Fold:
Amino acid sequence: MATLALDATAVEKLVSAAAAAPSIHNTQPWHYRPRPETATLEVRAARERAVPDTDPGGRALHISVGAAVFNLHTAARHLGWSPEVRLLPDPAEPDLLAAVRLDARSAAALPATDELYQAIWHRHTIRTPFTGPPVPAALLDELVEAARAEDATLYLPSPEETHRLLELTAEAERRSTTDPARSAESRSWIQGPGSEPYGIPASALGPQDSAGQLPMRDFAALRPAEHIPAAPFEAEPCITVLATDHDRPADWLRTGMALEHVLLLATVHQVRASLLHQAMEWPYLRWSTRDPERGPGHVQMLIRLGYGPEGAATPRLPVSRVLDTDT
Ligand SMILES: Cc1cc2nc3c(=O)[nH]c(=O)nc-3n(C[C@H](O)[C@H](O)[C@H](O)COP(=O)(O)O)c2cc1C
Structure:
């Protein structure tokens, strides 16, 4: 029976789960501060690991932290709490992104929580071609509901709209790889052996689509074309769109929570995912990703789904390096 005290062991478990979340360029832009006097775990932005050229407004940082908050919430429920999440709890402290209160025991354990908790340790971004059958419509419906549970919208564009979104992503990719500051920033997050445990290891970089349809992010930005490995990707990619009604920091955090809920549920069903965020990083292109037929809304992320080989885990900072103990 798990203990309900917010002691060092519990904090370690909660923070490990939070830190397994996806983050832009694997920056892990978070740190955690336990407040035992209020039975609260605070989640703060780690600005020292931001990507200011790629993400000047901090939107992607908030999405990354939102994903970590979802993992923290899931882990807390798995351990027997009924956690209460407050986003941006103190307007005077904009870098205090969330406070998770852990003073109540949950009345009953939900099986879905345990499945999502186990998926935290198996979810990876997969940048290789998907090879399996189409993702079943019933599962896509479940993913739509998972996003809705976090106050976001997940939708499936038509094949024509998918094509248009991928064209916008390709244009963003062209801009990012030819922008000196952004390409230098992206390259600086590729990690070699013996590097710090953040950033993208070379083993996690995938090929480019030999058909030119799926513009996977070229983290190495403009390495000589002949050195870019290419492989055929799925001809009819399953691209889903994650959007919110508004576009404020709280919406970005909710986007991250919805993103992680969708990714973990997909993982439970052995569905792999990769993210196509490039078009979101150029304001005009991001604006153009809106589908006028759907009415107002702000596109936050494209999620590519499918079946394929399992990928490898990317490194994470040890808990001791993301945990604040000085209060
Ligand atoms: C806001 C955000 C944007 C991301 N954008 C991309 C992207 O455009 N292309 C990509 O391949 N991965 C993208 N990722 C995935 C991260 O690179 C990945 O989560 C990180 O490297 C950690 O690896 P993992 O997801 O396998 O744990 C993004 C993640 C987040 C949270």
In short: The longest strand covers residues 298-306.
